[in-house]
Task: structure prediction
Amino acid sequence: MLEIIKAILFGIVEGITEWLPISSTGHMILLDEIVKLDVSEEFYSMFQVVIQLGAILAVVIIFWNKIWPFGKKTNEAPLSKSGVGAWIKKDIFVLWFHILLSCIPAAVVGVLWDDLFEELFYHPIPVALALIVFGVAFIIVENMNAGKNAKITAVADISYMTAFLIGMFQLIAAIFPGTSRSGATIVGALIIGVSRTVAAEYTFYLAIPVMLGASLLKIVKFGLDFTGMEAAILLVGMVVAFVVSMFVIKFLMGYIKKHDFKVFGWYRIALGIIVVACGALGLIQ
Result:
């Protein structure tokens, strides 16, 4: 029962931090320093990634009408006026081409060097430094953009070049935990002129193939030989992450319509400093 309670806590943290630009992986690593799951190192390495599947499901449900490329009822850009093509949403297929292009840099690096980066950087101090660096980046970028009109104010306006550039920023998060996948893509999108709302929405869409791919990679490496307790821990964590994500995504989309991202920057800096201090005092390793 204690391990299930811990799984619930991990699910809550995942559901909150996956979508806010404050680094879910970073928080999961830091939480593991405080609340240790009584599982093998191999299982935990898989768990902290695969738990994200619950968060993905929340995105799929909330944005279903914007990401499902088939159907005639709400088809504003059909492939053709009649026949099978009338059921194909051409604009959504283009969106998915953009998303897949954005995912290529991180996918290539993740497949080739995932284990190396995990060994080098998945530790509290590197996470803390990444939290601070990108916290400062959020504040600087928001100050630079103050009073300026965004060049891209709709997801449909994102070009292939813009999609690729956002993917290059996502690559930073694939290498350095604590950067935040959503944080890196949002900062990158803001720098190249994408509005806050569009940057956040596109980041949610990017999460679907990225997390599915990362989870599949981890499951293949771990295998399907779960104990009953391991399966329960993973399932509970995913369900809790899904429920929390449903609320957090809706909150963030409402919040950024009236506010900027600087509050998340200051939070990242404060948390990073606390972690560095704890490391210096030997409280964490």
Summary: The CA atoms of residues 103 and 209 lie 8 Å apart. The chain has twelve helices and no strands. Residues 90-121 form the longest helix (32 residues).
